[in-house]
Specification:
Keywords: Metal-binding, Transferase, Zinc
Cofactor: Zn(2+)
Structural class: alpha/beta
Bound molecules: (5S)-5-amino-3-OXO-hexanoic acid, zinc ion
CATH superfamily: Aldolase class I
CATH class: Alpha Beta
Pfam families: BKACE
CATH topology: TIM Barrel
Number of domains: 1
Strand order of the largest sheet: 1-2-5-6-9-10-11-12
Shape: globular
GO molecular function: 3-keto-5-aminohexanoate cleavage activity; metal ion binding
Protein name: 3-keto-5-aminohexanoate cleavage enzyme
Order of helices and strands: EHEEEHEHEEEHEHEHEHEEEHH
Helix content: 25-40%
Length: 271
């Protein structure tokens, strides 16, 4: 089995310091939390950015500040910027970090109910996002919250807007999206084109079980405070602790951890 790529979703757009003091906001906090995750075995850092007061933003300058701070501590980590941003942002706002030519960016592959809100990703938006990523040589991580989104990605691939082999992230357990069960994960894995790679991000208490399933099934795992703030019931986690646990589980199960360069080779990313 190929080595395990661990992605750490450092902060997201929704969780707050009120919920957990470990949620990083400032460039310094982001760099420190990224360093702990990277040292524990994360080769990809999934980056959203916040203002100092925690407000989510897609501002290009703020992204640059955060990426520079992370780079100083984690020189070879793969930076994956979010183009999902926060619910309600415009496409132009969300696409700003792609102008920094990151190695990877997320491409959210369809519209879903997202808790009480609606996360809008219309077909014309998907074409727009994929076109910009391709033009800037950015590898998309296709974020899939529901089965039909795989078909949107396949259609973009057939149009020549996403190169193969594609890389998917199944985000399972969002209220409004697919649940985080073994049956659903298996269905997703069987539905992607042959040769594709995949990661799973289980939301909340499903984070560790889904990561364990990925380790066993030959997929890759995403953990981090964006998706889950707890280490165990009622016990808050840091990003470093969440990554460390997955790395430990992988070792116990005989799966080696990919370095950033090994992750680049697996995902076909040329620096
Ligand atoms: N914050 C969510 C609305 C992504 O990073 O691309 C979208 C999200 C997905 O977090
Ligand atoms: Zn995200």
């Amino acid at each position: 089995m190929e080595k395990l790529i661990i992605t750490c979703a450092l902060t997201g757009a929704e969780v707050t310091k009120k919920q957990s003091p470990h949620v990083p906001y400032t460039p310094e906090e982001m760099a420190q939390s990224a360093y702990e995750a990277y040292s524990a075995g994360a080769s990809i850092l999934h980056v959203h950015v916040r203002r100092d007061d925690g407000t989510p933003t897609q501002d290009k300058n703020r992204f640059k500040e955060v990426i520079d701070a992370i780079r100083a501590k984690c020189p070879d980590a793969i930076i994956q910027v979010s183009t999902g941003g926060a619910v309600g942002m415009s496409d132009e706002e969300r696409l700003q970090p792609v102008e920094l030519y990151p190695e990877m960016a997320t491409l959210d592959a369809g519209t879903i109910n997202f808790g009480d809100e609606i996360f809008v990703n219309s077909w014309p938006s998907l074409v727009n996002f994929a076109t910009k990523m391709k033009a800037n040589n950015v590898k998309p991580e296709i974020e899939v919250f529901d089965r039909g989104m795989i078909e949107n990605a396949v259609r973009l691939h057939k149009m020549g807007l996403i190169d193969g082999p594609m890389h998917f992230d199944f985000v399972l357990g969002v209220p409004g999206g697919m649940p985080a069960t073994m049956e659903d994960l298996l269905h997703m894995v069987r539905s992607i084109p042959a040769g594709s790679t995949w990661t799973v991000a289980g939301i909340g208490r499903f984070q560790t079980p889904m990561a364990a399933a990925a380790i066993i099934m030959g997929g890759h795992a995403r953990v981090g405070l964006e998706d889950n703030i707890y280490y165990s019931k009622g016990v808050l986690a840091t990003n470093g602790q969440l990554v460390e646990r997955v790395a430990r589980l992988a070792k116990e199960l005989g799966r080696e951890i990919a370095t950033p360069d090994e992750a680049r080779a697996i995902l076909n990313i040329k620096r």
